[in-house]
Amino acid sequence: MSELDINDKVNEMLHKSEHNAAAAECFEKTFVRPEDEEREVIAPDGSIIKVNPIYDYFSGKKPTEEKPCGGVVEKFLNWARAESIWVLGFGTGCGSIEIPPLMTPRFDAFRFGVQMRPTPRQSNAFIISGYLSVKTLKRVIRSYEQMPSPKYILALGSCTINGGMYYDSYSTINRLDKYLPVDVYIAGCMPRPEALLAGFMKLKELIKAGKAEKANEYARNFDEYKANQKKIIKDWNMPDYNW
Amino acid sequence: MKEILDRIQSKYNLQDTSFRTDTMAFTTVSKELAIDMVTYMRDYEGFKHFVMMSCVDWIEDNKLQLLYLLNNPTKKCDIGIKVFIERENPSMQSAHHLWKQLWTYQRELKEAFGIDFPGSPRVDENFVLEGWTEKPHMLRDFDTNKYAEETYFPREGRSTNDPATYMRAKLYPNQPVTAKKNKDHE
């Protein structure tokens, strides 16, 4: 196979048609930054490769619902899930300061199977810790959608419930459940780490009872959630589903 | 400080000069002479340190007021140079060539108050908000409460209490309500 053929093959792989067509379809209005624009780059071996950063790295396909298998197996799985809650280390507001004490000997969240992870690909719980500005919401959506299912959201503080003391701000949202599905709310301004632990216990109860199915709810009402998100995030420069 | 201001009084036609302390003065200068005066203060009077730049919205007078705060590190004194500019399509001569940090200040003012600084680097880029399409959010006729209500799905059932009345009723339920009132809340 000549070098030219290899280049064609690479280009074909990079622009696998059905994949990108789906992404391009759901990605109508663009606020594409210069570094995200479709362009040709020269690879180290001298060949020219077309890249389209936004479409190449994410699928753009809609999420699908994963039906629980039910019965004893599901019970066992839920028990296992409840004992391994891996939290994404992402602090959104003033509440993020309540999370580090959880990992100290005093509160010791490890004994409940809770631990922090640095990347969404390794975690299944997301603590929205306090007020959420529109700018942060965009990053939160992007991170949440990268987390593998089943995934859970704990909303910490009154800001996520009704806006809290920032209810009249032009840049912070009022109700989180309009944009992302919330499993457990932890009220307070700010809740202490004990309250957060209680929230984890509640989440474990829900998981064991098979009621923490919010990731499926997100997939089911995906269009509605997306419409709400796009209403406030005006510079939408990412695919609709960032998986 | 006073001696410096006396010296440049006639040159820049200073108005409303006031002293907060012996070493801190505020003065108002016309829009055309403002950057000239800032340059003069930096190069000849030793006000080398640029402290900050800010804006006030005088909606009643239909004006915006810019403030350049400068500091003289050797004489340990500050001067605030105030400039009134028009409120409709506000625009001001850029001073980014004097101190580089003015890039950022001017970019912030462009986003928050809509003041244009022609020639200032990156002045049209987003500062803290992304994709903001409404009117500049720091102008006083931008109704943030109304905007939040229309945009962010307010939750029903939100109520508020006057903290003084609430705590009095809670702590001293037997005491008549006509008891001593806090004047701050009247």
Question: How would you characterize the overall build of this protein?
Answer:
- The complex is a heterodimer of chains A (243) and B (186).
- Chain A has 243 residues and is an alpha/beta fold.
- Chain A folds into two domains: 3-57, no CATH class; 71-232, Rossmann fold (3-Layer(aba) Sandwich).
- Chain A has helices spanning 3-14, 17-25, 53-57, 71-83, 134-146, 159-162, 193-208, 214-220, 222-232, and strands at residues 39-42, 48-51, 85-88, 114-117, 125-129, 152-156, 184-186.
- In chain A, the strands form three sheets. Chain A has a three-stranded parallel sheet.
- The model of chain A is unreliable at 25-30 (pLDDT under 50).
- Chain B is of the alpha+beta class and 186 residues long.
- Chain B has one domain (2-155): NADH:ubiquinone oxidoreductase Nqo5 subunit (Beta Polymerase, domain 2, 2-Layer Sandwich), CATH 3.30.460.80.
- Chain B is built from five helices and five strands; from the N terminus they run αββαβββααα.
- In chain B, strands 1-2-5-4-3 form a five-stranded mixed sheet.
- In chain B, a hairpin with a 2-residue loop joins β1 and β2.
- Chain B is extended, with a radius of gyration of 23 Å.
- The two termini of chain B are 42 Å apart.
- The A-B interface holds A 31, 134-135, 138, 161-163, 167-175, 178, 228, 231-235 and B 128-134, 137, 142, 144-145, 147-149, 151-155, 158.
